[in-house]
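dumping this here so i dont lose it
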């Protein structure tokens, strides 16, 4: 079964760019007789406000954007579908992979220009205690778990909208966070595991997320998940008449 997803983050109200994204997801799946999963990216608990969550359902209903799999209300999200209920899954997946010593603990702050931490890859044995420490809050925001991206890591794929794409992950992103200082798994890891678990075959994103796609392709290979069959579509960002990105525009409700 072909399957794509709407994956809004409830850290703000939806904007025109989200709607454009959802419409493209629905259109693609309708054309292929596929299904749509509603996956609300609420791992970042403190920023996932209830009114933002409620607004997602409101806008999807108002716009006639249907989905076949996922929560139908904020209470269903909380009870069954929240990413926060899946914390063990993200943890287990990381432990099963082991990180091939490409994972390291980084205690740098934003001000640090050079990260020396990346030279010390975590052994498989050291991963679990480090992860437990992060989860228990014992790290007290002292370190994040990052993936080392060495020189010359590129990812190439055929994009439904853009054709042949090549992203230089080293230059575009560099080392990136897998598990955050505040104890929650980072977007790149959560998104990959969710896409694997929900059997996602078609991924639609804005063109500002090309480096995230490259990061997840790289992670999937390292961790042994097959993404060879997944198709990608990266659409242009929605802009106003002056060419400004519309990510700040808030959709109005109840009007
Ligand atoms: Zn560092």
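and the seq i came up w/
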């Amino acid at each position: 079964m072909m399957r794509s997803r709407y994956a809004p983050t409830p850290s703000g109200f939806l904007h025109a760019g989200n709607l454009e994204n959802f419409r493209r997801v629905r259109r693609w799946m309708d054309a292929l007789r596929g299904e749509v999963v509603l996956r609300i990216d609420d791992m970042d608990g403190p920023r996932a406000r209830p009114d933002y969550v409620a607004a997602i359902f409101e806008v999807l209903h108002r716009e006639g954007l249907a989905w076949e799999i996922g929560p139908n209300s904020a209470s269903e999200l909380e009870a069954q579908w929240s990413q926060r209920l899946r914390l063990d899954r993200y943890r287990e997946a990381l432990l099963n992979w082991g990180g091939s010593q490409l994972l390291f603990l980084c205690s740098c702050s934003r001000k640090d220009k050079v990260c020396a931490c990346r030279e010390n890859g975590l052994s498989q044995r050291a991963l679990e205690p480090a992860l437990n420490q992060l989860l228990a809050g014992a790290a007290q925001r002292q370190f994040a778990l990052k993936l080392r991206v060495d020189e010359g890591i590129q990812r190439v794929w055929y994009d439904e909208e853009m054709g042949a794409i090549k992203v230089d992950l080293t230059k575009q992103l560099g080392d990136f966070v897998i598990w955050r200082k505040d104890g929650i798994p980072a977007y790149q890891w959560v998104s990959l595991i969710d896409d694997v678990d929900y059997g996602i075959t078609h991924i639609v994103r804005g063109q500002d997320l090309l480096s995230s796609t490259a990061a997840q392709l790289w992670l999937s290979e390292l961790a042994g998940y097959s993404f060879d069959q997944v198709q990608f579509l990266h659409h242009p960002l929605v802009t106003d008449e002056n060419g400004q990105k519309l990510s700040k525009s808030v959709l109005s409700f109840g009007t």
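Residues 106-108, 115, 117 surround zinc ion (CB under 6 Å).
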